Amino acid sequence: MSNTDILHAVADIVHEVAGVDPAEVTAEKSFTDDLGVDSLSMVEITVAVEDRFEVRIPDDQVAELRTVGGVVNYIDGHR
Q1: Which of 14, 21, 58, 76 is deepest in the core (most CB within 10 A)?
Q2: In the annotation, is 34 catalytic?
Q3: Is this structure's pTM higher than 0.85?
């Protein structure tokens, strides 16, 4: 699975959880500042990403993953 495929899957998850148009979910976007994802939705996104990609994101890492690209890179490096 390429990073582009991962990005599209993450965009679908963000859309399902937070209602953000998948076209708006790009690698450089910040979840909170650019996409308006609140902390509860971020937890739901994290759980969905873990389930979809069979990765574990430790709680202390979630705070570090501020951008969509950060999540994509994390998934790519940990699957």
Answers
A1: 14
A2: no
A3: yes
